[in-house]
Amino acid sequence: MADIKKLLIPEHTKTVCKATPDTRFWKKFKFAAAVKEYGPATHLSFSCEPPYCYTVTSGTKVNIYNVQSNEVQQSISRFKKTAYSGCIRKDGKLVVAGCEDNSIQVFEVGTRSILRQLTGHVRPVHVTRFSEDNTHIISGADDKTLRCWDLPTGEELLCMTGHEDYIRSATSVPLSPDVWITGSYDHTVRVWDKRSGESSLSLDHGAPVESVVVLPTGGIAISSGSNKVRVWDVHKGGSPLVTLSNHQKTITCLALDHTNRRLLSASLDHQVKMYDLSDYKVTHSIKYSAPVLAVGTTAHNTHLVAGCNDGIVSIRHNPTPKEAAAKRPLSALTPGSYGYFARGKNLKPAATDAVSGMEPKRKKLAKYDLHLKRFQYTEAFDHVLTNRCEPEVVVSVIQELCRRDALKRVLSGRNEDSLQPILSFLVYHVTNPRYFTVLCDTAHILADLYSPVLGMSPSIDALFGKLNKRLKLEVKVQENYMKLQGAMDCFFTATGLS
Protein backbone atom coordinates (compact mmCIF):
# COMPACT_ATOMS: atom_id res chain seq x y z
CA MET A 1 0.00 0.00 0.00
CA ALA A 2 1.43 3.40 -0.97
CA ASP A 3 2.17 5.93 1.73
CA ILE A 4 -0.30 8.77 2.17
CA LYS A 5 0.79 12.12 0.79
CA LYS A 6 1.30 14.82 3.38
CA LEU A 7 -1.01 17.81 3.43
CA LEU A 8 0.67 20.59 1.43
CA ILE A 9 0.93 23.81 3.46
CA PRO A 10 1.45 26.91 1.28
CA GLU A 11 4.48 29.05 2.13
CA HIS A 12 4.01 32.79 1.80
CA THR A 13 6.87 35.13 0.99
CA LYS A 14 8.43 36.71 4.07
CA THR A 15 10.10 40.09 4.13
CA VAL A 16 13.82 39.64 4.77
CA CYS A 17 15.92 42.59 5.91
CA LYS A 18 19.10 42.86 3.91
CA ALA A 19 22.15 42.54 6.13
CA THR A 20 24.48 45.53 5.88
CA PRO A 21 28.11 45.71 7.06
CA ASP A 22 26.97 47.76 10.06
CA THR A 23 24.30 45.19 10.95
CA ARG A 24 26.86 42.40 10.85
CA PHE A 25 29.22 44.54 12.93
CA TRP A 26 26.73 45.11 15.76
CA LYS A 27 25.63 41.47 15.75
CA LYS A 28 29.18 40.50 16.68
CA PHE A 29 28.61 41.97 20.15
CA LYS A 30 27.65 39.03 22.35
CA PHE A 31 26.34 39.25 25.89
CA ALA A 32 29.25 39.09 28.33
CA ALA A 33 27.99 40.19 31.76
CA ALA A 34 25.23 42.01 33.65
CA VAL A 35 26.26 43.79 36.85
CA LYS A 36 23.70 44.99 39.38
CA GLU A 37 24.33 48.48 40.79
CA TYR A 38 22.71 49.93 43.90
CA GLY A 39 20.78 52.54 41.92
CA PRO A 40 19.99 53.59 38.35
CA ALA A 41 23.11 53.69 36.15
CA THR A 42 22.80 57.31 35.00
CA HIS A 43 26.12 57.99 33.26
CA LEU A 44 29.00 56.22 31.50
CA SER A 45 32.47 57.54 30.67
CA PHE A 46 35.30 55.78 28.83
CA SER A 47 39.07 56.11 28.94
CA CYS A 48 40.95 56.31 25.64
CA GLU A 49 44.27 54.88 26.85
CA PRO A 50 45.26 51.49 28.30
CA PRO A 51 43.89 49.76 30.27
CA TYR A 52 40.74 51.35 28.73
CA CYS A 53 38.68 51.27 31.92
CA TYR A 54 35.33 53.06 32.18
CA THR A 55 33.16 54.58 34.92
CA VAL A 56 29.54 53.97 35.84
CA THR A 57 27.74 56.56 37.98
CA SER A 58 25.02 55.06 40.15
CA GLY A 59 23.50 56.40 43.37
CA THR A 60 26.21 57.71 45.69
CA LYS A 61 29.02 55.85 43.91
CA VAL A 62 31.19 56.10 40.84
CA ASN A 63 32.45 52.61 39.98
CA ILE A 64 35.46 51.98 37.74
CA TYR A 65 35.14 48.83 35.60
CA ASN A 66 37.87 46.62 34.17
CA VAL A 67 37.33 45.75 30.50
CA GLN A 68 39.07 42.39 30.82
CA SER A 69 37.09 40.98 33.74
CA ASN A 70 33.86 43.03 33.24
CA GLU A 71 33.86 43.62 36.99
CA VAL A 72 34.18 46.62 39.30
CA GLN A 73 37.86 47.39 39.68
CA GLN A 74 37.50 50.31 42.10
CA SER A 75 34.60 52.07 43.78
CA ILE A 76 34.55 55.77 44.69
CA SER A 77 31.94 56.38 47.38
CA ARG A 78 32.99 59.62 49.03
CA PHE A 79 29.75 61.41 48.23
CA LYS A 80 27.33 62.58 50.91
CA LYS A 81 24.43 62.64 48.45
CA THR A 82 23.66 61.39 44.95
CA ALA A 83 26.56 61.57 42.49
CA TYR A 84 26.10 62.76 38.92
CA SER A 85 28.04 62.56 35.66
CA GLY A 86 31.17 60.72 36.81
CA CYS A 87 33.67 61.40 34.02
CA ILE A 88 37.08 59.73 33.62
CA ARG A 89 39.87 61.67 31.95
CA LYS A 90 41.16 60.39 28.61
CA ASP A 91 44.38 59.12 30.16
CA GLY A 92 42.42 57.20 32.80
CA LYS A 93 44.19 58.85 35.77
CA LEU A 94 41.54 61.22 37.17
CA VAL A 95 37.77 61.13 37.71
CA VAL A 96 35.51 64.15 38.19
CA ALA A 97 31.89 64.02 39.37
CA GLY A 98 29.16 66.40 40.42
CA CYS A 99 27.00 65.94 43.48
CA GLU A 100 23.55 66.79 44.77
CA ASP A 101 25.18 68.89 47.53
CA ASN A 102 26.26 71.47 44.86
CA SER A 103 29.94 70.42 44.92
CA ILE A 104 32.38 68.98 42.37
CA GLN A 105 35.02 66.45 43.38
CA VAL A 106 38.14 65.30 41.52
CA PHE A 107 39.62 61.90 42.42
CA GLU A 108 42.82 60.06 41.57
CA VAL A 109 42.01 56.66 40.10
CA GLY A 110 44.92 54.80 41.66
CA THR A 111 44.37 55.87 45.28
CA ARG A 112 40.72 57.07 45.12
CA SER A 113 41.82 60.12 47.14
CA ILE A 114 40.13 63.50 46.69
CA LEU A 115 42.49 65.86 44.84
CA ARG A 116 40.13 68.82 44.44
CA GLN A 117 36.77 69.84 45.87
CA LEU A 118 35.29 72.68 43.82
CA THR A 119 32.49 74.84 45.22
CA GLY A 120 30.62 77.69 43.58
CA HIS A 121 27.39 76.26 42.22
CA VAL A 122 24.29 76.90 44.33
CA ARG A 123 22.23 73.98 42.96
CA PRO A 124 22.99 70.28 42.26
CA VAL A 125 25.70 69.76 39.62
CA HIS A 126 24.51 67.35 36.92
CA VAL A 127 27.23 67.82 34.28
CA THR A 128 31.02 67.58 34.65
CA ARG A 129 33.56 67.18 31.85
CA PHE A 130 37.32 67.42 31.36
CA SER A 131 38.56 69.81 28.68
CA GLU A 132 40.43 68.56 25.63
CA ASP A 133 43.76 69.74 27.11
CA ASN A 134 43.02 67.86 30.40
CA THR A 135 43.79 70.98 32.49
CA HIS A 136 40.29 72.44 32.85
CA ILE A 137 36.90 71.23 34.03
CA ILE A 138 33.52 72.37 32.72
CA SER A 139 30.45 71.98 34.93
CA GLY A 140 26.74 72.63 34.44
CA ALA A 141 24.17 72.71 37.19
CA ASP A 142 20.55 73.33 38.09
CA ASP A 143 21.46 76.98 38.82
CA LYS A 144 21.48 77.46 34.99
CA THR A 145 25.18 78.38 34.91
CA LEU A 146 28.11 76.87 33.03
CA ARG A 147 31.41 77.21 34.90
CA CYS A 148 35.03 76.64 33.92
CA TRP A 149 37.58 75.54 36.56
CA ASP A 150 41.36 75.43 36.54
CA LEU A 151 42.35 71.90 37.55
CA PRO A 152 45.90 72.58 38.90
CA THR A 153 44.76 75.41 41.23
CA GLY A 154 41.10 74.51 41.76
CA GLU A 155 40.01 78.10 41.04
CA GLU A 156 36.92 79.15 39.12
CA LEU A 157 37.98 80.86 35.90
CA LEU A 158 34.66 81.66 34.29
CA CYS A 159 30.92 81.63 34.97
CA MET A 160 28.73 81.74 31.85
CA THR A 161 24.99 82.43 31.91
CA GLY A 162 22.42 82.21 29.18
CA HIS A 163 20.35 79.10 29.76
CA GLU A 164 16.94 79.61 31.36
CA ASP A 165 16.56 76.13 32.84
CA TYR A 166 18.61 73.19 34.15
CA ILE A 167 21.72 72.22 32.17
CA ARG A 168 21.75 68.49 31.54
CA SER A 169 24.51 67.85 28.97
CA ALA A 170 27.77 69.30 27.71
CA THR A 171 30.51 68.32 25.30
CA SER A 172 33.74 69.82 24.03
CA VAL A 173 34.86 70.28 20.43
CA PRO A 174 38.06 68.22 19.88
CA LEU A 175 39.60 70.60 17.31
CA SER A 176 38.60 73.75 19.26
CA PRO A 177 39.39 73.31 22.97
CA ASP A 178 37.88 76.72 23.81
CA VAL A 179 34.46 75.87 22.32
CA TRP A 180 31.79 73.97 24.30
CA ILE A 181 28.27 72.86 23.40
CA THR A 182 25.56 72.42 26.05
CA GLY A 183 21.95 71.26 26.17
CA SER A 184 19.32 72.43 28.63
CA TYR A 185 15.75 71.87 29.69
CA ASP A 186 14.93 75.30 28.21
CA HIS A 187 14.77 73.46 24.82
CA THR A 188 17.98 75.08 23.54
CA VAL A 189 21.43 73.90 22.46
CA ARG A 190 24.06 76.60 22.98
CA VAL A 191 27.57 76.97 21.62
CA TRP A 192 29.97 78.71 24.05
CA ASP A 193 33.35 80.33 23.47
CA LYS A 194 35.53 80.31 26.59
CA ARG A 195 37.60 83.20 25.23
CA SER A 196 34.63 85.59 25.12
CA GLY A 197 32.73 84.01 28.00
CA GLU A 198 29.45 84.20 26.09
CA SER A 199 27.15 82.06 24.01
CA SER A 200 27.87 82.52 20.32
CA LEU A 201 24.97 80.42 18.97
CA SER A 202 21.61 79.19 20.25
CA LEU A 203 19.60 76.38 18.60
CA ASP A 204 15.97 75.53 19.39
CA HIS A 205 15.53 71.77 19.74
CA GLY A 206 11.81 72.05 20.50
CA ALA A 207 11.91 69.90 23.66
CA PRO A 208 14.01 69.58 26.85
CA VAL A 209 17.49 68.55 25.70
CA GLU A 210 18.81 65.43 27.41
CA SER A 211 22.09 64.81 25.56
CA VAL A 212 24.47 66.49 23.09
CA VAL A 213 27.38 65.09 21.06
CA VAL A 214 29.59 66.70 18.44
CA LEU A 215 31.64 65.21 15.63
CA PRO A 216 35.45 65.66 15.88
CA THR A 217 35.55 68.48 13.33
CA GLY A 218 33.06 70.50 15.39
CA GLY A 219 30.93 71.27 12.35
CA ILE A 220 28.11 68.83 13.16
CA ALA A 221 26.29 68.81 16.51
CA ILE A 222 23.64 66.24 17.45
CA SER A 223 21.07 66.76 20.20
CA SER A 224 18.33 64.60 21.69
CA GLY A 225 15.14 65.66 23.42
CA SER A 226 11.76 64.01 23.74
CA ASN A 227 11.80 61.16 21.18
CA LYS A 228 13.66 63.14 18.53
CA VAL A 229 17.29 63.43 17.46
CA ARG A 230 18.25 66.60 15.60
CA VAL A 231 21.42 67.13 13.57
CA TRP A 232 22.76 70.70 13.25
CA ASP A 233 25.34 72.27 10.93
CA VAL A 234 27.19 74.58 13.32
CA HIS A 235 29.40 76.08 10.61
CA LYS A 236 26.30 77.29 8.73
CA GLY A 237 24.80 79.11 11.70
CA GLY A 238 23.10 76.08 13.20
CA SER A 239 20.92 75.14 10.23
CA PRO A 240 19.05 71.85 10.86
CA LEU A 241 20.14 68.97 8.66
CA VAL A 242 18.11 65.95 9.76
CA THR A 243 15.45 65.12 12.35
CA LEU A 244 15.21 61.48 13.44
CA SER A 245 12.28 60.05 15.41
CA ASN A 246 12.87 56.30 15.63
CA HIS A 247 12.14 55.95 19.36
CA GLN A 248 8.76 55.80 21.07
CA LYS A 249 9.79 57.52 24.31
CA THR A 250 12.31 60.08 25.57
CA ILE A 251 15.87 59.63 24.32
CA THR A 252 18.11 59.80 27.38
CA CYS A 253 21.60 59.51 25.90
CA LEU A 254 23.59 59.91 22.70
CA ALA A 255 27.06 58.51 22.06
CA LEU A 256 29.52 58.05 19.21
CA ASP A 257 31.43 54.84 18.68
CA HIS A 258 35.24 54.74 18.66
CA THR A 259 35.45 55.41 14.90
CA ASN A 260 33.02 58.39 15.08
CA ARG A 261 31.16 56.89 12.11
CA ARG A 262 28.24 55.50 14.09
CA LEU A 263 25.76 57.12 16.45
CA LEU A 264 24.07 55.33 19.38
CA SER A 265 20.86 56.50 21.06
CA ALA A 266 19.36 55.12 24.28
CA SER A 267 15.74 55.63 25.29
CA LEU A 268 13.14 54.98 27.96
CA ASP A 269 11.44 52.58 25.51
CA HIS A 270 14.12 49.96 26.45
CA GLN A 271 15.81 50.35 23.05
CA VAL A 272 19.31 51.25 21.95
CA LYS A 273 19.48 52.16 18.26
CA MET A 274 22.54 52.48 16.05
CA TYR A 275 22.73 54.91 13.12
CA ASP A 276 25.13 55.19 10.19
CA LEU A 277 26.26 58.83 10.14
CA SER A 278 26.74 58.74 6.37
CA ASP A 279 22.96 58.59 5.76
CA TYR A 280 21.51 58.78 9.33
CA LYS A 281 19.61 55.53 8.92
CA VAL A 282 19.06 52.95 11.67
CA THR A 283 21.30 49.96 11.02
CA HIS A 284 20.66 47.94 14.17
CA SER A 285 18.60 47.91 17.37
CA ILE A 286 18.98 46.17 20.73
CA LYS A 287 16.15 45.77 23.25
CA TYR A 288 16.90 45.73 26.98
CA SER A 289 14.81 44.66 29.95
CA ALA A 290 14.46 48.18 31.42
CA PRO A 291 14.62 51.84 30.33
CA VAL A 292 18.17 52.68 29.19
CA LEU A 293 19.73 55.81 30.72
CA ALA A 294 23.30 55.65 29.35
CA VAL A 295 25.14 53.89 26.54
CA GLY A 296 28.61 53.89 25.01
CA THR A 297 31.45 51.85 23.54
CA THR A 298 34.96 51.33 24.85
CA ALA A 299 38.11 52.15 22.89
CA HIS A 300 38.47 50.14 19.65
CA ASN A 301 34.78 49.14 19.96
CA THR A 302 35.55 46.02 22.00
CA HIS A 303 32.65 46.47 24.45
CA LEU A 304 29.14 47.90 24.24
CA VAL A 305 27.93 49.07 27.67
CA ALA A 306 24.41 50.16 28.62
CA GLY A 307 23.21 51.44 31.99
CA CYS A 308 19.57 50.81 32.84
CA ASN A 309 17.02 52.36 35.17
CA ASP A 310 16.80 49.20 37.29
CA GLY A 311 20.53 49.38 38.12
CA ILE A 312 21.64 46.72 35.63
CA VAL A 313 24.82 47.47 33.67
CA SER A 314 24.67 45.32 30.54
CA ILE A 315 28.04 44.57 28.93
CA ARG A 316 28.37 43.09 25.43
CA HIS A 317 31.73 42.02 24.04
CA ASN A 318 33.02 42.08 20.49
CA PRO A 319 35.96 39.63 20.43
CA THR A 320 39.10 40.72 18.65
CA PRO A 321 40.53 38.39 15.94
CA LYS A 322 43.10 37.07 18.44
CA GLU A 323 40.42 36.32 21.06
CA ALA A 324 38.21 34.64 18.46
CA ALA A 325 41.12 32.47 17.28
CA ALA A 326 41.95 31.47 20.87
CA LYS A 327 38.38 30.27 21.43
CA ARG A 328 38.28 28.07 18.33
CA PRO A 329 38.50 24.35 19.13
CA LEU A 330 41.74 22.58 18.25
CA SER A 331 41.61 20.43 15.15
CA ALA A 332 43.44 17.51 16.82
CA LEU A 333 41.18 15.21 18.85
CA THR A 334 42.34 13.96 22.22
CA PRO A 335 42.28 10.15 22.49
CA GLY A 336 39.68 9.02 24.99
CA SER A 337 37.37 11.98 24.41
CA TYR A 338 33.84 11.74 23.03
CA GLY A 339 34.85 13.55 19.86
CA TYR A 340 37.63 11.03 19.29
CA PHE A 341 35.22 8.06 19.42
CA ALA A 342 32.51 9.85 17.40
CA ARG A 343 34.86 10.80 14.57
CA GLY A 344 33.55 9.92 11.14
CA LYS A 345 29.93 9.86 12.32
CA ASN A 346 28.86 12.44 9.71
CA LEU A 347 31.04 11.04 6.93
CA LYS A 348 29.05 10.53 3.72
CA PRO A 349 29.69 7.33 1.71
CA ALA A 350 31.34 7.57 -1.68
CA ALA A 351 29.60 6.45 -4.87
CA THR A 352 31.74 3.27 -5.01
CA ASP A 353 31.08 2.22 -1.38
CA ALA A 354 28.73 -0.64 -0.59
CA VAL A 355 26.13 0.57 1.93
CA SER A 356 24.01 -1.73 4.09
CA GLY A 357 21.37 -1.04 6.70
CA MET A 358 20.44 2.31 5.17
CA GLU A 359 16.73 1.77 4.61
CA PRO A 360 14.83 5.02 4.08
CA LYS A 361 13.07 6.23 7.21
CA ARG A 362 9.33 6.44 7.16
CA LYS A 363 7.98 9.95 7.08
CA LYS A 364 6.46 11.06 10.35
CA LEU A 365 2.97 12.41 9.78
CA ALA A 366 1.43 15.28 11.67
CA LYS A 367 -1.57 14.59 13.87
CA TYR A 368 -4.04 16.08 11.38
CA ASP A 369 -2.45 14.04 8.57
CA LEU A 370 -2.99 10.86 10.61
CA HIS A 371 -6.66 11.76 11.10
CA LEU A 372 -7.08 12.47 7.39
CA LYS A 373 -5.38 9.17 6.57
CA ARG A 374 -7.96 7.36 8.74
CA PHE A 375 -10.83 9.45 7.26
CA GLN A 376 -11.44 11.02 10.67
CA TYR A 377 -12.35 14.39 9.22
CA THR A 378 -13.99 15.90 12.28
CA GLU A 379 -11.04 14.98 14.50
CA ALA A 380 -8.57 16.48 11.98
CA PHE A 381 -10.52 19.75 11.80
CA ASP A 382 -10.92 20.03 15.59
CA HIS A 383 -7.23 19.29 16.11
CA VAL A 384 -5.97 22.20 14.00
CA LEU A 385 -8.47 24.56 15.65
CA THR A 386 -7.93 23.65 19.29
CA ASN A 387 -4.13 23.30 19.13
CA ARG A 388 -3.57 26.84 17.83
CA CYS A 389 -2.05 25.76 14.53
CA GLU A 390 -0.96 28.38 12.02
CA PRO A 391 -3.79 29.85 9.91
CA GLU A 392 -2.19 28.36 6.78
CA VAL A 393 -2.59 24.87 8.27
CA VAL A 394 -6.25 25.42 9.20
CA VAL A 395 -7.08 26.78 5.74
CA SER A 396 -5.22 23.89 4.07
CA VAL A 397 -7.28 21.37 6.09
CA ILE A 398 -10.49 23.16 5.07
CA GLN A 399 -9.42 23.01 1.41
CA GLU A 400 -8.65 19.29 1.76
CA LEU A 401 -12.08 18.67 3.30
CA CYS A 402 -13.69 20.57 0.40
CA ARG A 403 -11.74 18.45 -2.08
CA ARG A 404 -13.02 15.30 -0.32
CA ASP A 405 -16.57 16.75 -0.22
CA ALA A 406 -16.61 16.42 3.59
CA LEU A 407 -16.67 20.05 4.84
CA LYS A 408 -20.45 20.32 5.23
CA ARG A 409 -20.54 17.02 7.13
CA VAL A 410 -17.74 18.22 9.45
CA LEU A 411 -19.44 21.55 10.20
CA SER A 412 -22.94 20.17 10.81
CA GLY A 413 -24.29 18.75 14.07
CA ARG A 414 -22.09 20.80 16.40
CA ASN A 415 -22.98 22.09 19.85
CA GLU A 416 -22.17 25.49 21.32
CA ASP A 417 -18.70 24.53 22.60
CA SER A 418 -17.47 22.99 19.34
CA LEU A 419 -18.90 25.77 17.19
CA GLN A 420 -17.23 28.67 19.03
CA PRO A 421 -13.63 27.94 17.87
CA ILE A 422 -14.75 27.84 14.22
CA LEU A 423 -16.60 31.15 14.41
CA SER A 424 -13.76 32.79 16.35
CA PHE A 425 -11.28 31.73 13.66
CA LEU A 426 -13.52 33.08 10.93
CA VAL A 427 -14.02 36.42 12.72
CA TYR A 428 -10.27 36.89 13.10
CA HIS A 429 -9.07 35.73 9.66
CA VAL A 430 -11.94 36.15 7.20
CA THR A 431 -10.72 39.56 5.98
CA ASN A 432 -7.21 38.29 5.22
CA PRO A 433 -6.86 38.34 1.41
CA ARG A 434 -4.89 35.08 1.46
CA TYR A 435 -7.77 33.13 3.03
CA PHE A 436 -10.84 35.18 2.06
CA THR A 437 -12.19 32.88 -0.68
CA VAL A 438 -12.00 29.70 1.41
CA LEU A 439 -13.24 31.23 4.65
CA CYS A 440 -16.07 33.12 2.97
CA ASP A 441 -17.40 29.84 1.53
CA THR A 442 -17.08 28.27 5.00
CA ALA A 443 -19.06 31.14 6.52
CA HIS A 444 -21.84 30.64 3.94
CA ILE A 445 -22.07 26.95 4.85
CA LEU A 446 -22.27 27.77 8.58
CA ALA A 447 -24.98 30.36 7.95
CA ASP A 448 -27.07 27.83 5.98
CA LEU A 449 -26.63 25.13 8.65
CA TYR A 450 -27.28 27.16 11.80
CA SER A 451 -29.58 30.01 10.74
CA PRO A 452 -32.68 28.05 11.94
CA VAL A 453 -31.29 27.82 15.50
CA LEU A 454 -30.05 31.40 15.90
CA GLY A 455 -31.27 32.99 19.11
CA MET A 456 -30.81 29.89 21.27
CA SER A 457 -27.23 30.71 22.37
CA PRO A 458 -26.12 34.30 23.23
CA SER A 459 -22.43 33.51 22.66
CA ILE A 460 -23.01 31.99 19.21
CA ASP A 461 -25.32 34.90 18.28
CA ALA A 462 -22.61 37.37 19.32
CA LEU A 463 -19.99 35.61 17.17
CA PHE A 464 -22.31 35.54 14.14
CA GLY A 465 -22.94 39.26 14.72
CA LYS A 466 -19.21 39.99 14.79
CA LEU A 467 -18.69 37.97 11.62
CA ASN A 468 -21.48 39.92 9.92
CA LYS A 469 -19.92 43.26 10.95
CA ARG A 470 -16.45 42.21 9.73
CA LEU A 471 -17.82 41.19 6.34
CA LYS A 472 -19.86 44.40 5.96
CA LEU A 473 -16.83 46.49 6.91
CA GLU A 474 -14.67 44.59 4.41
CA VAL A 475 -17.25 45.20 1.65
CA LYS A 476 -17.26 48.92 2.49
CA VAL A 477 -13.44 49.07 2.44
CA GLN A 478 -13.33 47.31 -0.93
CA GLU A 479 -15.91 49.76 -2.33
CA ASN A 480 -13.75 52.68 -1.20
CA TYR A 481 -10.71 51.06 -2.77
CA MET A 482 -12.57 50.67 -6.07
CA LYS A 483 -13.64 54.34 -5.98
CA LEU A 484 -10.08 55.41 -5.25
CA GLN A 485 -8.76 53.21 -8.05
CA GLY A 486 -11.27 54.73 -10.48
CA ALA A 487 -10.30 58.26 -9.47
CA MET A 488 -6.60 57.46 -9.87
CA ASP A 489 -7.21 55.88 -13.30
CA CYS A 490 -8.98 59.05 -14.42
CA PHE A 491 -6.13 61.18 -13.07
CA PHE A 492 -3.43 59.12 -14.77
CA THR A 493 -5.38 59.06 -18.01
CA ALA A 494 -5.82 62.84 -17.96
CA THR A 495 -2.15 63.32 -17.17
CA GLY A 496 -1.10 61.09 -20.02
CA LEU A 497 -3.36 62.91 -22.49
CA SER A 498 -2.04 66.29 -21.43
Number of helices: 10
Instruction: Outline the biggest β-sheet.
Output: 4 strands, antiparallel
| Helix fraction bin | 10-25%
Helix/strand/pairing category: alpha+beta
Cα(first) to Cα(last) distance is 70 Å
Report on this model:
With 498 residues, the protein is α+β, with helices and mostly antiparallel strands. The chain has ten helices and 28 strands. It has helices spanning 21-27, 321-327, 338-341, 367-373, 377-386, 391-403, 407-411, 416-429, 436-450, 458-497; strands spanning 30-36, 41-46, 54-58, 61-66, 71-76, 83-88, 94-99, 104-108, 114-118, 125-130, 136-141, 145-150, 156-161, 167-173, 176-184, 188-193, 198-204, 209-214, 220-225, 228-233, 239-244, 251-256, 262-267, 271-276, 281-287, 292-297, 303-308, 312-317. It has a four-stranded antiparallel β-sheet, with no helix packed on it. A hairpin with a 4-residue loop joins strand 16 (188-193) and strand 17. The longest helix has 40 residues, at 458-497. It is elongated, with a radius of gyration of 33 Å. The mean pLDDT is 89.
Please give the structural blueprint:
Elements: H1 21-27, E1 30-36, E2 41-46, E3 54-58, E4 61-66, E5 71-76, E6 83-88, E7 94-99, E8 104-108, E9 114-118, E10 125-130, E11 136-141, E12 145-150, E13 156-161, E14 167-173, E15 176-184, E16 188-193, E17 198-204, E18 209-214, E19 220-225, E20 228-233, E21 239-244, E22 251-256, E23 262-267, E24 271-276, E25 281-287, E26 292-297, E27 303-308, E28 312-317, H2 321-327, H3 338-341, H4 367-373, H5 377-386, H6 391-403, H7 407-411, H8 416-429, H9 436-450, H10 458-497
Antiparallel strand pairs: 1-28, 2-3, 3-4, 4-5, 6-7, 7-8, 8-9, 10-11, 11-12, 12-13, 14-15, 15-16, 16-17, 18-19, 19-20, 20-21, 22-23, 23-24, 24-25, 26-27, 27-28
Helix pairs in contact: 4-5, 5-6, 8-10
